[in-house]
Design brief:
The chain contains 24 helices and 20 strands. It is an alpha+beta fold. Strand 13 and strand 14 form a beta hairpin. The longest helix is centred in the first third of the chain and has 23 residues. The two termini are 31 Å apart. Bound molecules: 2-(butylsulfanyl)adenosine. 2-(butylsulfanyl)adenosine binds next to strand 3, strand 8 and strand 11.
Length: 667
């Protein structure tokens, strides 16, 4: 019993320390899931021991980090949207309406409309107390923990002339440079690319792990202050005050006293916005005086005192010259439109992606068509329509999807339920062969120092046809090739021999099995610590591993069912590559609990709960939090939850005490 009490005390102390590191210092020293795990253990212990209740326990905090879903919060002032205008004529109408309603002089503040995720921050006595997303406008998600990681959001304000309590609204943004960096990294890892920075910003804001949020280098710009005692009656002046308190208020906001001023601002930013570090999609015009804003009031959805002028989605019309089909590393076919080169937002566009067959059919494309091309928030231009009226009788043939691979001639396949077509000839299709080698050598896989051009050269010279051939390269082969002076050739050979000690999980990732990314490779290598074990694993064995589903299991079994893959692996083994897990102190790893679902409950004497959890995983089992029809064993300790015990006996689940469990592992 004393053991339980001291465990509770030490968990409370630890959790408080991590709370402080995380919330106050913004420097968490443990992963979110570890924190959650400790919190859950504490909650269970407290549930089982109400006599140790303490209102100051970290489990008693409101809005504890434990919740996987964000807490929903009502907005004190609703977050409205803005009416849109698309032309200067509409802007003039807005201006006229305001002038008629007010019937006195007024100023308009012009500012950029930032394209990210909107956020509302509350400050009390100069401290950030809450950050809430827009949600449905009246209720949003409490994302304070995540927003705290954004460096441009002040946690404490500068000076002392801010109101005791106020809200400030703004936009969370992912700068273009960061967006490009993340996408480049994803491309290297064979992951799908993000379409635009807005999606990444709002996705990141709702990420469950604040350290991921912190790593993404989000930025925040602010544009609206709300509260009972704001410094002045002017929106522009209030923004200047907010800037002095430490907020990032874009310097490009301008007070306009005439339509001419506004017009000048619009035409200046229409072009200049291309040089901004973040995405914008228009200009916002606001009546400056707050008194006048109140006079003008609101419609059901938006204020009458403000309007958005949306930038023209940059669009051009150009001729569709031809369609080519590209074959990716995994055999996926991407149709690409070859266009008559045309200028679009500062760059010459020659190509546009068409994604898949459904899109081609939807557009009813013909060669020679005049097509509309847009480059919205997306980086790759896309065809958004066809000018069918300008279609002449000379228009070329209707575009249809190819039936055979343009590179190797193999008949394409379209897996059920997928829009994409694939070339199934992984072993004979040049871009797939070269792609597989490129993937194998990447830094996160085997880390072999050779670039795509050299792979291409060596492939063309007949030196390499698969990844195993890399290990047969010698100095004499290399020096015959252009680009391979003595030193870089030796460098390549060194990296090839270093790659022989790359851990098993990275080798497994390097094989490029479809759907086996880094995380899956890690999981598989733990559950099947030797390539032979993985080779023999059935789909059922595979799906018994945490987070491995049908789709991955099928891909893995199909890979090992192919004799050519087996031969390749055997050949790689002769070069001495690591095909098993290194002894990392867990050499007693077994498959004794493989496929078994085990729930732990109560407190134990011989090992901690954490250690039991690790033991289960070490022996290939899965630890789950709650008893269900899928549970195989319930491992029970002292003072276990009565409800769990009853449920387990009802379901006929086998109950083990710690000795019985340890015996099971001994066998
Ligand atoms: S003012 C009541 N100013 O645009 C008016 N909004 O439809 C409050 N936005 O999602 C909004 N830049 O997040 C305002 N300079 C700016 C803005 C801006 C971007 C976003 C805002 C909202 C949408 C308005």
């Amino acid at each position: 019993m004393n053991g339980t009490k001291s465990r509770i005390t030490s968990l409370r102390r630890e959790l408080e320390r991590h709370n402080y590191n995380y919330h106050v210092l913004s420097a968490p020293t443990i992963a979110d899931c570890e924190f959650d795990y400790m919190m859950r253990e504490l909650q269970q212990l407290e549930e089982a021991h109400p006599e140790y209740f303490d209102p100051y326990s970290p489990t008693q905090r409101v809005g504890s980090d434990l919740s996987k879903d964000f807490e929903q919060v009502s907005h004190k002032y609703p977050m409205l949207s803005l009416g849109n205008t698309y032309s200067e004529a509409e802007v003039r109408e807005f201006y006229g309406r305001v002038a008629r309603s007010l019937n006195e002089s007024f100023d308009i503040v012009a500012e950029l409309k930032y394209d990210g995720a909107s956020i509302s921050l509350t400050y009390k006595n100069g401290k950030l107390v809450q950050a809430v997303t827009r949600g449905d406008g009246s209720r949003g998600d409490n994302v304070t923990a995540n927003v705290r990681t954004i460096r441009s959001v002040p946690l404490s304000l500068i000076g002392d002339d801010y109101p005791d309590e106020f809200e400030i609204r703004g936009e969370i943004l992912l700068p273009w440079s960061e967006f490009e960096r993340i996408n480049k990294e994803r491309e290297e890892q064979g992951e799908s690319l993000f379409a635009n920075p807005r999606n990444v910003a709002s996705g990141t804001l709702k990420h469950q792990n604040p350290s991921v949020v912190a790593a993404r280098k989000l930025d925040a710009y602010f544009y609206y202050l709300l509260g009972e005692d704001l410094p002045t009656d002017g929106h522009y002046e209030n923004m200047e005050a907010a800037r002095s308190w430490g907020f990032k208020i874009p310097p490009v906001i301008r007070k306009c006293s005439s339509l001419e001023d506004i017009s000048e601002y619009l035409s200046y930013w229409e072009k200049e916005r291309e040089h901004l570090p973040v995405a914008t999609d228009g200009i916002v015009l606001k009546v400056n005086s707050i008194k006048q804003q109140l006079n003008l009031g609101y419609t059901a959805k938006s204020p009458r005192w403000a309007v958005a002028y949306k930038f023209q989605a940059e669009r051009i019309a150009t001729r569709l010259n031809s369609i080519s089909f590209q074959v990716g590393r995994t055999g996926a076919i991407t149709p690409v439109a070859n266009l008559e080169p045309a200028l679009l937002s500062g760059t010459t566009v020659k190509r546009a992606s068409l994604h898949n067959e459904d899109i081609i059919i939807g557009l009813d494309l013909h060669i020679g068509d005049n097509v509309y091309v847009e480059k919205g928030g997306e980086i790759i231009p896309k065809i958004v329509g066809v000018d069918t009226e300008s279609r002449t009788t000379e228009v070329g043939e209707k575009v249809s999807f190819i039936k055979n691979c343009p590179e190797c001639g193999a008949e394409l396949i379209q897996p059920e339920g997928e829009a994409a077509h694939y070339c199934p000839n992984a072993w004979g299709c040049p871009p797939q062969i070269k792609g597989a080698i490129e993937h194998f050598v990447t830094r996160r896989a085997m880390d072999i120092r050779i670039g795509p051009e050299s792979i291409e050269d060596m492939y063309n010279a007949g030196l390499i046809k698969n990844v195993a051939d890399l290990y047969t390269l010698g100095l004499t082969d290399l020096v015959k090739l252009e680009r391979w002076a003595g030193k870089s050739a030796q460098n390549l050979l060194d990296s090839l021999s270093e790659s022989k000690s790359v851990p098993f999980e990275r080798f497994l990732y390097g094989l490029g099995i479809r759907y086996v990314g880094e995380t899956v490779a890690k999981r598989l290598s733990r559950a099947f610590p030797h390539i032979d074990k993985l080779k023999q694993a059935t789909a059922e064995d595979l799906t018994a591993v945490d987070e491995i589903g049908e789709r991955i299991a099928q891909s893995v079994t199909a890979y090992f069912a192919d004799e050519r893959n087996i031969a390749l692996i055997e050949r790689l083994a002769t070069f001495g590559l690591k095909m098993y897990m290194e002894d990392d102190g867990s050499s007693n790893r077994t498959n004794k609990l493989s496929g078994l679902n085990i729930v732990i409950s109560g407190a134990f004497a011989k090992h901690s709960r954490d250690e039991y959890k690790q033991l289960i995983e070490l022996h290939g089992g899965k630890n789950s939090g709650s008893v269900s029809g899928k549970t195989d064993y319930l491992l029970v300790g002292e003072n276990m939850g009565q409800a769990k015990l009853e449920k387990a006996s009802k379901l006929g689940i086998k109950i083990l005490n710690e000795d019985e469990f340890l015996n099971l592992l001994e066998q």
